């Protein structure tokens, strides 16, 4: 059923017939890519033909957001349906012990103990694989995964990440081979699910286009003359290499006859703006409270149930788990703040999305308020960024009109004190660190 609201086509998922097979679910999660860096988002040079095709077949939320621009916290939100201050995975790593470097900390017993304690905290939250297993789903993890053993800690029935620190376990270990070294483990799982006649959930989160930016020479050669920066050319080539792997996955679903009854959801974990003079990211991207780090297109494809099109309504990664659970006929947990992205009423009624930025290494792994740097809200086209004085000394609120200033260059806070006051109340009502 379609509803036309404010000139925008919004789509409701059709009710599944009682005899219909439950839909399969595939999450495709890009790693370190700006919201602008796709063909379907209008990039002048980057070629992403497979994601462009997926976008043509999907409901595309061009104003999608992740609540935080750091990978562990962002990925944990996608799999739990909770904000970082709820699932407690606010930072990538525990505090670095005094007197040690980051490399030395990785061998420190106290540091490693706290890493395990973080995983134990994560296990207290709901996880989509566990919820889907109750609905008789198989599940498979491939790619980035921070929360220990993917099966024991994450609830996947199968997975690539062992999570053992003694064997290099931190953010994916064996899972990080996926994409860069082919997708055979995923293909094998799809074959098994087909043979067993089971619905399935796939977590495909390769460390791509994430550094190291070492694309195949054939792709680097496509871009090296389109920019004066070798670093930018390599990053652009990585985006296309990632796109090729997405094409491989979607083609395999077609070959297996599984595509028609599969919900495919795409987004990336956080943004990335490539520095022109080095291999690192530029300001206002990863780890920042700006759209260059937080904004992502969110694509939802479900043949026969979701009409393809574009929406300019706000969407958030906290919506993924509720959307999937509703689609498979299960109920989201009461503390999940997201909405069903296939429910036209809720999508049309949403005006705000929220988030927070935290320290890379936690100050206190169990207390999100100790780790927060910024909180932010987007209300319509207004965006307010509130620094947390405990960890960001001397910073002032920043207010932007995204409809006129998508790059967030002109801070309008001093000229609009009432708007700052209004949006601050909304942020505090959402979450106030104490």
What does this protein structure show overall?
With 434 residues, the protein is an alpha/beta fold. The protein has a single domain, classed as Alkaline Phosphatase, subunit A (3-Layer(aba) Sandwich). The protein is 29% helix and 19% strand. It is built from 14 helices and 14 strands. The strands form three sheets. It has an eight-stranded mixed beta sheet. Strand 1 (2-5) and strand 2 form a beta hairpin. Helix 8 (217-223) crosses helix 9 (230-255). The longest helix is centred in the middle third of the chain and has 26 residues, at 230-255. The chain is globular and about 60 Å long. The relative contact order is 0.18.
Which helices and strands occur, and which strands form pairs?
Blueprint: E1 2-5, E2 8-11, E3 24-30, H1 49-56, E4 59-65, H2 71-80, H3 84-87, H4 102-105, H5 109-122, H6 128-133, E5 138-143, E6 158-159, H7 184-196, E7 200-205, H8 217-223, H9 230-255, E8 262-268, H10 291-294, E9 295-301, E10 309-316, H11 320-327, H12 344-349, E11 352-358, H13 368-371, E12 372-379, E13 382-387, E14 398-401, H14 417-430
Parallel strand pairs: 3-7, 3-8, 4-10, 5-6, 5-7
Antiparallel strand pairs: 1-2, 4-9, 8-9, 11-12, 12-13, 13-14
Helix pairs in contact: 8-9
């Amino acid at each position: 059923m379609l509803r036309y609201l404010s000139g925008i086509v919004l789509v409701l998922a059709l009710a599944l017939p009682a005899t219909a097979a439950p839909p399969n679910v595939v999450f495709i999660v890009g790693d370190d890519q700006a919201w602008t860096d796709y063909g379907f988002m209008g990039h002048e040079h980057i070629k992403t033909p497979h994601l462009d095709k997926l976008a043509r077949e999907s409901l595309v939320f061009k104003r999608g957001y992740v609540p935080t621009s750091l990978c562990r916290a962002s990925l944990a939100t996608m799999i739990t349906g909770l904000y970082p201050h709820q699932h407690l995975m606010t930072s990538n790593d525990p505090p670095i012990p005094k007197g040690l470097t980051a490399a030395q900390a990785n061998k420190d017993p106290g540091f490693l103990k706290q890493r395990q304690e973080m995983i134990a905290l994560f296990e207290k939250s709901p996880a989509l694989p566990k919820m889907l297993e109750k609905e008789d789903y198989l599940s498979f993890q491939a790619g980035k995964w921070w929360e220990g053993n993917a099966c024991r800690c994450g609830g996947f029935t199968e997975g690539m990440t062992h999570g053992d620190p003694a064997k290099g376990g931190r953010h994916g270990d064996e899972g990080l081979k996926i994409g860069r070294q082919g997708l055979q483990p995923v293909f094998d799982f799809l074959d098994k699910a087909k043979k067993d006649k089971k619905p399935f959930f796939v977590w495909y989160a390769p460390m791509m286009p994430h550094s190291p930016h070492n694309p195949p020479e054939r792709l680097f050669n496509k871009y090296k003359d389109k920019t004066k920066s070798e670093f930018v050319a390599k990053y652009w080539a990585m985006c296309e290499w990632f796109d090729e792997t997405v094409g491989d996955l979607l083609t395999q679903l077609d070959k297996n006859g599984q595509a028609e009854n599969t919900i495919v959801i795409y987004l990336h974990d956080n943004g990335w703006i490539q520095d022109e003079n080095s291999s690192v990211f530029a300001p206002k991207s990863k780890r920042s409270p700006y759209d260059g780090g937080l904004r992502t297109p969110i694509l939802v494809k479900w043949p026969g149930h979701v009409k393809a099109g574009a929406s300019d309504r706000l969407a958030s990664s906290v919506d993924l788990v509720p959307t999937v659970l509703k689609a498979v006929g299960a109920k989201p947990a009461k503390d999940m703040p997201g909405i069903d992205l296939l429910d036209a009423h809720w999508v049309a009624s949403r005006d705000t999305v929220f988030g927070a930025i935290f320290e890379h290494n936690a100050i206190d792994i169990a207390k999100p308020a100790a780790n927060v740097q910024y909180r932010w809200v987007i209300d319509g086209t207004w965006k307010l960024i509130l620094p947390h004085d405990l960890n960001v000394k001397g910073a002032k609120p920043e207010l932007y009109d995204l409809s006129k200033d998508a790059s967030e260059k002109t801070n309008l806070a001093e000229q609009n004190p009432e708007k700052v006051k209004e949006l601050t109340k909304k942020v505090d009502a959402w979450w106030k660190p104490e």
